[in-house]
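Pipeline run #58 for the internal structure catalog. This entry was flagged by the ingest filter as a single-chain record with no existing model, so it goes straight to prediction. Upstream metadata was stripped on purpose; only the residue string is passed forward. Reviewer on rotation: M.T. Logging verbosity set to normal.
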Amino acid sequence: TVFSELTGQGLYDKGAVQLRNIAIAAGALNAGAGVEIAPDGALSGRVIVDLKSARATLTLGGKLKEPALRR
């Protein structure tokens, strides 16, 4: 997918990564997210997706090698 916008802020501290204020735009798709990656690769976060008139809030979990999104 080609994004017309991809912005965010990142912080790395002692093996952990925080990604905040992520904004993605691609045509009718807009999304925002916040993600934390633990030193062991565990993921946590939330993604809010707007697609035309539908909106979904998804929870991010799992590991870097096996990410999982849930409603």
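catalog note: The chain has a mean pLDDT of 95.
catalog note: The radius of gyration is 13 Å.
status: ready for reviewer M.T.
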